[in-house]
Amino acid sequence: MTNSEAGIRPEQVVYCPPAEYREYAPFRDYESAYQNYLKDPDGFWRDIASDLLWFRQWDKVREWEYPFAKWFINAKLNITYNCLERHLKNNRRNKVALFWHGENGTKKIYTYDHLHRAVMQFGNALKNLGVGKGDVVCIYMPTVPEQVVAMLACARIGAVHTVVFAGYGASALNQRIVGSNAKVVITADASMRRGKSIPLKPIVEEALIHAPSVERVVVLRNQDPPTCLLDDFEVDFYEIMQAAEKKCPPEEMDSEDRLFILYTSGTTGAPKGIVHTCGGYMVGAYYTTKYVLNVKDNDVYWCTADPGWITGHTYAIYGPLLLGATIFMTESTPDYPDVGIWWKLIEEYGINVFYTAPTAIRMFMRYGEDWPNKYDLSSLRILASVGEPLNPEAFEWFYHVIGKGKCPLTDTWWQTETGSHMITTLVGEPMKPGFAGKPIPGVVADVVDSKGNPVGPFQTGYLAITEPWPSMMRYVNDDEEKYRSYWESPNHRYYSTNDLAIKDDDGYIMILGRSDDLIIVSGHNIGTAEVESALVSHQAVAEAAAIGKPDAVKGNIVKAFVILVEGTVRTPKLEHDLKYHVRQTLGPIAVPSEIEYVDNLPKTRSGKIMRRVLKAKEMGVDPGDITTLDE
Ligand code: PRX
Question: What DSSP character marks residue 223?
């Protein structure tokens, strides 16, 4: 039993914000803003949405037929019109939209005008390949400006993008291409990582072997000599762009048309294609980038997430562009050529708002304060964190060593499914290390028991969202049952986040971790089922179970328990082969750090693996109720 299960209060530290933080506070005070939202939820969202440009206004703010919601009914818009033209009209034509810093020091700068032109021309190039409104385009690229151009070009012409993180392997990519029925794949010849060029195109070639929907592959070629292209099937990114018309008017999209599909790990079997739509997602991304991250017109803003994840979609690209901000983006990993690189970039680009993940902070902590202290970090104004719990030690380090105790630090809780921030501590509110904070105005959340009843302060329960919000996922691609599974149970009516949490007397929420079979490794969501099926697809493996094992830096590591096929010899080479096999099929992020060979696995009488029992044993704690465990 943990302290929180017993209702014991964790030691709480509270940082009362100095008066100067109020200067940036988005609302006069949280409580009255929240009450205003509760009094008139539709009015609240209508006012936010009215900051943006719509080709046609909505007839109604929302329709809510549990568990299906629609937002901004019959409104017409294009998100790129809001990310681009809106700023050209507002005198930001020559403002920097994007600073990009390559790993080898190459720099690229796009003004809003440049980005607008690139997006229009690449949009036309896609149209020339036969891509139309509603078609799906898979983007499998490194973090380069062309990735942003490709995403926005899809949105410009009404195509639905599905971005796949370039660290995924061929079988994970294949699953996402097939699942989304992608017509075109956009990739690059290679990505740069720690001074090495990692080929991407061969992974795409392998992923396309059983992917009949794909008609064309677009390749961004940066390598010398350039990769050869297969006639009539593969085309060069810049060649098709330069051959295309320059003007591309924005496609008029219905508020409920799909904007993108983003795959997130499933707890059973295949990953889930989370579908977000144009109007509601735009409003959620805009609102939270403005009110939570507090990005201002003169800021240089850096969100370190890869565009292959939801944080990259909402907060590296769409949110800041909707605000007309200046984005900084890099393909640099935090430790190459040394662990000072990110602080060096903050100094060099004068970053004001810095949004990163606890795993990165914990990695930096290991190397000490000397690295950040070498650089001038005084440009920083706001710090933010996402992806997993920001433990109090990491909070303190980030707040004091990086922010010098002068920058508000907001820990943002949300999910691929929620599209944008849900729970955090708004700038100007007291900060409690270890607690993400309260639901933001626009979100109604609580910590409940399995029957849906709110639990008392400091009692562990499930984090639940009880009202719909504009950027909520609309459905899981082709799987209504999976969508419903988030909402429906015999006892309650709310959105289940599948996270465990506690709430303190002031309503601050601390996230304790997942209640299901997802493992959050370095802030990335990995399904135990995916790792297990990758292992089982190796000829030497009869059965496998994967668990998340707590780790001081990564939050969790993947540990796999493997039953080998009779007669297989356990050699060090075999362990290496199994890890390599997972890397090839799923990608490096999913590779188990530890593999243990076992003769059997704990299962329920109905044959389900009880990962909870394995985890408890691994951590030397009581496994809890094991009455369903098979003898
Ligand atoms: O367990 C929570 C954790 O990440 C999960 C969502 O993962 P994903 O859909 O990949 O999105 C990650 C980026 C939003 C959540 O269910 N998580 C995310 N942010 C936090 C967090 N856990 C604790 N604190 C956070 N701030």
Answer: S
